[in-house]
Amino acid sequence: MSEPESDRMIESEPDRKLRDRSGQGTDNSPAEAIVAIPLRHPWRIVIAVVLLLGLAVFVLDAAQRPDYGWPDVGKYIFDRRISQAAWVTLWLTIYSMIGAIVIGLLLAIMRLSPNPVLKSVAWLYIWIFRGTPVYVQLVFWGIVALIYPVFTLGIPFTTPWVTVPNEIFTNLFITAVIGLALNEAAYMSEIVRAGLLSVDEGQAEASTALAMSWGQTMRYVVVPQAMKIIIPPTGNEVISMLKTTSLVAAIPLSIDLYGVSRGISAVTFTPVPLLIVASLWYLLFTSVLMVGQHFIEKRFSRGTGRAKTDKAPIAPEPAPTAGPGAPGTPLGTDFGGKG
Amino acid sequence: MTGVPMVLAEKVSKNFGSNRVLRGISLEVDPGEVLCIVGPSGSGKSTFLRCINHLEVVDGGRLSVDGQLVGYRQKGEKLYELKLKEAAFQRQEIGMVFQRFNLFPHLTAVENIILAPMRVKKISKAAATARAMELLERVGLGDKGDAYPAHLSGGQQQRVAIARALAMDPKLMLFDEPTSALDPELVGEVLDVMKGLAKSGMTMIVVTHEMGFAREVADTLVFMDDGVVVEAGAPRQILNDPQHDRTKAFLSKVL
């Protein structure tokens, strides 16, 4: 045990005590606890104070500015039309994500399948839906009923056997769900694929050696283990989707939170308070989703790893930092941000 | 059905691109026989084992298990590749144990064991569980049924993996360096289970570096190098009096 004689050492009472002890050679009495003055971080406090002052100035100023229309915010925040629209936004998100997860899972499995036809189809789908802006896609789905007024079944370029009017795309809510789900599926498939690829090859091999089919191997062995990798970025996608639903105005569907807020402000000529109202509702939903995501991640990290033996919580998979439109990528696969 | 070898390999070859991993392997394993394969790494031992289970496709020669061609069906002069389902059906009779155990980490020991019997053989959960407990007892882990793999030592995991393979009632067991990933003090418990299995009359092919095990348990020892069988015979004879220079060189390093 050598006492470093570095000049960086600051002589202090505890230091001297430590040295005195070490001079006594080996003895079995328990080592004295280190009593040291902790490292100070004065600049952190200074910066925090400056930021808090800045925030206070902004809040006080905003509270007085008439453009914010705080009385109107209070008036509309629990307006029935707004809460109903918030409900629509929530269901748009839920339906779209369910569709996106199902299609995304299919696409991911297709891309990883040994069948070159399935592989190519999935690749083409992702190329198109990830390569064009979701806003443009929504505009397209909005006018698709004009391009294809009827569905027909028969031999091409002859008189069709069956003709069905295109009624799906005349329902704007369903159109919105289809448009959002088809776009999101391209992103979900990449997340699912990354998850499936993260499972050790030996797992599929062991399963195959046990005479399980490819489908059984996927279902009982690979997918359950991939969930741990898939869940965190999927939570991120749900939050992203909640906000992307505001783009359904492109269809145009105007019964969602953003659409109704704009509708009301077009009549009352008070755009700012209604944007604040809409933002507060979006924030409420995303906050709830963040809490939910936390618990789901915790649940899916059990069984494997050390989470079960140790009492201390272990940091889950590299948690995606919630940036708008930037899906978390624990595996470094390149997912583009969404326009 | 006497006279039909459990495994019959005739000039089996396998290439990975331009890399010729197996260059004409011919050997025979009779029912109830224990065959140990030794050799330097990269000699094709594991690849040969994986070919027997059709995890790798054989490029040349003939390989059959219990009289049935592996991975192909012969009709007249022509060979037809088996459907995935048919290949899976062949695998039911072949158990395999891996170097890295490859237990399913999201399932408990019992769940690991009952998965394939339930899903492939459609055995009821109760029956499969009873059998799983029996097998765990047999490998000395009767009290570990509810443990997840992460909470078992390497030796215990490998014993569960052996029980998992046995649950499909195979007539042939393949071991791919089953003790190579284990801490030295855990090797013995796995070898003991394998010895018991050999005694019970199971046909086994074991790729191993455990010369002691090979000497004690194997009926036949095969020394492989560079994709060919260099020398094969009774383990005592090969270990004590190797004929070939390559065998001598290898054994002088590992014994």
Describe it for me?
The complex is a heterodimer of chains A (339) and B (255). Chain A is mainly α and 339 residues long. In chain A, 63% of the residues lie in helices and 2% in strands. Chain A has helices at 13-22, 42-64, 70-77, 80-112, 116-131, 134-147, 172-198, 201-209, 214-244, 257-268, 271-300, and strands spanning 150-153, 162-165. Chain A has a two-stranded antiparallel sheet. The longest helix of chain A has 33 residues, at 80-112. Chain A is flat. Residues 1-11 and 305-339 of chain A have low confidence and may be disordered. Chain B is an alpha/beta fold and 255 residues long. Chain B contains nine helices and twelve strands. Chain B has helices at residues 45-52, 84-91, 109-119, 125-138, 154-166, 184-199, 211-217, 235-240, 245-254; strands at 7-16, 19-29, 34-38, 60-65, 68-69, 72-75, 78-81, 94-97, 172-176, 203-207, 220-225, 228-233. Chain B has a six-stranded mixed beta sheet, with helices on both faces. A four-stranded antiparallel beta sheet of chain B has the order 2-1-4-5, covered by helices on one side. In chain B, strands 6-7 form a two-stranded antiparallel ribbon. In chain B, a hairpin with a 2-residue loop joins strand 6 and strand 7 (78-81). The N and C termini of chain B lie far apart (39 Å).
